[in-house]
User: What shape does this take?
Amino acid sequence: MTQTSGKTILISAGDISGDIHAANLVRAIKELDPSVRVIAIGGPRLKECADEFVIDLASEGISGFVEPLKKLPLFFKLIKQVRTILQTQKPAAFIAVDYYGLNHQFLKVAKEENIPAYYYVTPQVWASRQYRAKRLAALTKKMYVIYPFEPAFHKERGGNAVFLGNPLLDKMPAPLSKNFDIKDPKTYAWKLGILPGSRRGEITRLTPVFYQTFKEICKTYPNTQAYIFLLPDANEQDFIKLLGEQPPANFHFVKETDYKMRAQMDFLLACSGTATLENALLGVPMLVAYKMFWPTFLIAGLVIKVKYISLVNLLVNRPLVKELIQWRASVQNCSALTQDMFAHPQKLADMHRELLALRQSLGEPGVAKRAAADILGDL
Assistant: This one.
C-alpha cells in the first residue's frame, strides 16, 4: 500500500462521464491509501466518495462554444473558490478530469500556487484546437490519456503523457456473444436501443428524432421493442414531454448502471460521445447522430481537425459506423439506415465482430488503480 501521510487532493470533473471516471479514480486512491483526503468539484458520484464537496458542476451540462458564456458568473466564482482552497489547504496535488473549459482555468491557478497537477482522461485536443496540447504540457506534471496513439501526439508538443488503458474498461462488462442468424427479419423481435445523450441540449434535440424513428421502423418490423436509456436520476415525465405523447407498450424506459440491458440490444441509435465507445466495448452495432446548437455547429466546423465525430470511427480511422450530423440526423435517414441493418443481419454480425476487435486495442481493466498508484507514487 502506498502511503502519503494524510495528504489532501483536489479533483475536478465538469460533466457526467468525467464525474464517473473521477469517482472511480478517487475510490482507487482511497483503496491504496485511506489517509488521503479528497476535495471534489464534480457530480453526484464524486459527492458520494469525496471528503469535501464544493459544487455539482457536472449536472450543469455545460458544453459547446456559445452556451458557456451564460455561465461566466458561476465560472468566475468557482475559479476564486479553487484559488482559496489551494492557498488555505495546500493540497498535495490537483487532478483535472476531462472537461477542458474550467479545468484549464483551475490548472492555471494550480500552477500559480505551485501545486503539482495531473490530467486524468485528457481532453481530445488532437481532434480540435491542437494548440491546447502545449498549454496542457506547460500546466501538468503528467497526463493520463485514454487512447494508445495519444502519448506520441503529446510528446511532440512537450507533454508528459502515458497510456495505462481506457478507463471505460474498468466499468464495462464482458461483451455478450451475439447470433445474428435471423431467418425472418420482419417477424423477429428486434431490440432497438436509444441513447439520446447526457446533456440537456443533446437530449432535447435527439429524443424526438429517435422516437419517431422507432415508430417508422415498427411499420415494417412490428415486433420491435425499443429501450431508451436514461441517467439514474432522470425524470421519465420530462422525456414523455419530449415524445409529445404517452409512448406505446413496446417503448421502455431503462435506468441502469451495469450495462446488462444495453448489452442485449441488437442495434442502437446513439448520440455522439462516450456512449459510442461504450457501445463498441459491448460489441453492439449502432448508428451515431448529433445535433448541435447552430452557432456551435458553425464554429465547430472551423476548428475540428478530424474526419469523424464518433470515437469508434476515429479509432479505426474509417467509417465503421454511420454518422448523421445536424440536418442529416433526420427521422428519414435514421429509419432508413436502421431498417437496412435489420434487413441484412450479416451487416450487424460484421459490425459486432469489428467492434470487439476494437475493444482489444484499448488495454485491460484496472486503469483507475494503475493511475492512482502512479499519482500516489509521485506524491
